[in-house]
Design the sequence.
């Protein structure tokens, strides 16, 4: 499902989400909690080569759940990295699938913060890369600087390594760790986190996370202009296949037969087309599944957030980059974005049936498949959406069409007023970035496991820095920035330092006050 | 389009088309024209090893139009084979595509017969074969005997080599060639004969063919029970792709984008589904394209032919072999076959759009394709059907959906009373086979170029012998039969000897009379 988060993020970034420039993080900025920031920054600089090398070593060990590759080694390496960064309790957790990692760092602080990591990466084909995907070479990126190219560089090892480096630097500078940390890491993010609950909801892990003010995932959030969007939630998603099959149907052939037989034999491919036809309106844009939960309308605040964010984004660039001449219903840029945030979707990811090679082949296929993703908004749930779809197909006489769900999440929502989010806003503002609050990411990530009961915690992403190519060839993470609007690796590390001190202060109630004074000053 | 003929033929054979057993072709059978059949048969036996070796050499040289392989070499080899078999004029014909071959054999006979060859073969993947597809090894086929396994063995080099061997044997036995021959061969049959008219309708070729009583293609027509169906025509076919594309549509993306954007971006894949939905009835079986020509109803004679043929075929075996539990509308075996013969179809050969690999991928595809074949019956034409489809899509608002036709033929019909067909019936009956006349093959072949103006000739297929696996791995042609109901290679050769003498007599008006006397005697 990470495709959703990062694909979407890459997209937002690519279409020039904001026009705000990020001022370089000044050493003289207002500090949220009493600590020697300069000393920490010096340690970050001193550790630079070590951290880059550690990131390269991590990239050299790809864990790919879909390929059953290096799960055990990846979890052990993850545990080692956590241990070295100062987590006192570190444990590989059996999930029945690929193992997770649970770790705690007790700083004796008043505030506890949850951190969500993935140690797995997306599949890759080295033939498509301009630089070997496991070698993590440093290459020049015109307009950006020197970037590390490798699978997992930005999704998610680069930002995660930057976060761990922040912990090293705070310790090396002999500064107090401002928060206690609870780390949960999984090795199945790229296959839809089927066992995330086995880690997060294990009673002792749950108890540890319950103490936290929320959970965040490190992420290089800056677009090339330095702008940062703070997402207040994400749509849910269900990925599934609709399969029409002669055998299940009891009509048509149970293997591909010669197409001339169409005159006397029913066609599962036509059946799939007819069933699909009932799911959406004539224009393909409105869900017509009976019993599908109606989406909650946007609030005035959400509309305002969208209007503000949209005003900072260039529609023409978005259209050109996506190759989309007009939005659904010829909507305005703002209304199209309201639709993006508020409306559920049923999308055809792929159609596969019969002969799919070049030219034609005269077969009557026994089976046809539509690969579907449904994006969900509150109050929909993954299970509710699947049930509604199945009931609809049954009611319309297509009960034989198999609904094979491969993964998915419920929608997730985090209050903008939560400390987790407000600390992000404070850190960004102090660094000269006016963050763009966004009501709901149209993509999806497994935040639901944190935001829903029993945990009911705020959850989000945070981090400066910049990367690209998640799930694609030549994935990269910026190491040394020559672009004054965007942070390199050390700047990303410092964003976590600042966020942790801000959270420590926010949690104890002091930093927010200090920040308010600083802003007012 | 050969897929249609041979796929269908293989199918008919596989479902046990007839229950009639073929008596072994007796040496003492009534002869249609004065000639020393025993002497010819002796030459066939003597030539056996030479002919088998020549067939192996031919198979070793595959001409594959789709892969641009060996067209020139294939045409030259075809010309050489014709020359060696006694054609006095042999010429490679430039068509703009792959070359054809035109050859004439003037025997000073009263009757001229057209012969249609293809020298090209279907693509193949050696990895799928149990025996190398170009080595043409002789292997044991339980229940049949020794068969040659190789690409083109039955489709069409085996039967064609048997026909050429008949010419050799007649000459070697110093017997009079009973007919003049006009041979047209093409190298693009497997891609739908796009240039067949460039060979057949070249003025001098046309003039030569005009003198013939009709055109036949050699083919191993016996099913494993020895039964033979005589087809009196074939459906037409159009193969095409319906393509929904964001760029052409002017809506949706012009490249695949992240699926979360479905909420604001139109989907070409949904558009394809909606357009497809308008083409057929809810059950997928009745064409709802407005303006699509209505098929001519079956005649009483056609119904009788179907009833007779169907009575000789085992429905249970057909259902089991095809894996089809019930026919369209739960029709009876006979009514289903009437539908097979009489109804046009729109079939989905394949659906291809977006992500087609294992699992899912969260994309909104910019393009989706339905591979379609339409089967046509008189009075439909290929061009008429395509025009009706295009007009329908325009009228329904889907004018942006591209209709990319890759090939096709008009339907073709040959009168059962024609000499070409009656000679087949006579030869079969004298060999103890009651031929099953079939009004219209549901598959397709380029017979239209012969049966339509300007030539307006009868056209069909003929030959004993047995093969299988056309277009599939392990294609074979039976060389030495251990099954008394089915002829091996030499028996196939003798079927052409007998057919040529029958045609010579039929053409001159004497053989039919003799045959009638023999049958009455």
Sequence:
């Amino acid at each position: 499902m990470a495709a959703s988060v990062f694909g979407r993020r890459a997209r937002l970034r690519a279409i020039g989400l904001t026009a705000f420039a990020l001022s370089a993080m000044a050493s003289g900025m207002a500090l949220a909690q009493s600590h020697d920031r300069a000393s920490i920054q010096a340690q970050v600089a001193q550790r630079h080569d070590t951290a880059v090398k550690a990131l390269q070593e991590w990239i050299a060990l790809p864990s790919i759940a879909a390929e059953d590759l290096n799960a055990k080694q990846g979890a052990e390496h993850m545990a080692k990295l956590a241990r070295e960064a100062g987590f006192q309790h570190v444990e590989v957790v059996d999930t029945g699938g690929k193992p997770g990692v649970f770790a705690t760092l007790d700083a004796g602080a008043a505030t506890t913060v949850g951190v969500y990591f993935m140690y797995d990466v997306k599949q890759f084909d080295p033939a498509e890369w301009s630089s070997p995907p496991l070698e993590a070479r440093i290459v020049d990126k015109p307009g950006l600087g020197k970037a590390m190219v490798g699978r997992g560089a930005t999704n998610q090892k680069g930002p995660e390594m930057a976060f761990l480096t922040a912990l090293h630097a705070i310790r090396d500078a002999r500064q107090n760790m401002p928060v206690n940390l609870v780390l949960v890491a999984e090795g199945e993010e790229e296959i839809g986190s089927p066992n995330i609950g086995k880690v997060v909801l294990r009673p002792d892990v749950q108890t540890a996370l319950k103490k936290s003010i929320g959970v965040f995932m490190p992420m290089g959030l800056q677009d090339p202009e330095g702008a940062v969007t703070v997402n207040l939630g994400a749509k849910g998603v269900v990925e599934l296949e609709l399969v029409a099959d002669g055998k299940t149907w009891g009509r048509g052939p149970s293997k591909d037969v010669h197409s001339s037989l169409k005159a006397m034999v029913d066609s599962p491919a036509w059946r799939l087309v007819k069933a699909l036809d009932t799911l959406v309106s004539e224009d393909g844009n409105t869900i017509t599944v009976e019993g599908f939960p109606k989406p909650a309308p946007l609030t005035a605040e959400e509309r305002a957030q969208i209007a503000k964010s949209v005003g900072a984004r260039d529609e023409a660039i978005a259209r050109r980059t996506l190759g989309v001449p007009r939005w659904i219903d010829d909507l305005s840029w703002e209304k199209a974005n309201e639709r993006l945030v508020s409306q559920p979707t049923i999308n055809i990811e792929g159609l596969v049936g019969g002969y799919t090679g070049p030219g034609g082949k005269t077969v009557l296929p026994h089976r046809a498949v539509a690969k579907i993703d449904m994006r969900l908004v509150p109050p929909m749930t993954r299970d509710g959406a699947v049930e509604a779809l199945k009931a609809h197909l049954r009611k319309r006489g297509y009960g034989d069409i198999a609904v094979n769900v491969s993964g998915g999440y419920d929608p997730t929502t985090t209050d903008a007023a939560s400390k987790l989010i407000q600390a992000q806003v404070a850190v960004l503002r102090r660094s000269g970035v006016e963050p763009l609050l966004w009501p709901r990411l149209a993509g999806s990530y497994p935040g639901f496991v944190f935001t829903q009961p029993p945990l009911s915690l705020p959850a989000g992403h945070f981090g400066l820095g910049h990367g690209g190519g998640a799930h694609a060839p030549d994935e990269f993470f910026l190491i040394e920035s020559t672009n004054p609007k965007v942070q390199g690796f050390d700047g990303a590390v410092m964003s976590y330092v600042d966020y942790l001190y801000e959270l420590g202060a926010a949690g104890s109630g002091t930093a927010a006050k200090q920040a308010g004074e600083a802003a007012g000053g």
Q: What stands out?
A: Chain B touches chain A through 92 residues (CB under 8 Å). The two ends of chain B are 43 Å apart (CA to CA). The first helix of chain B runs from residue 2 to 14.
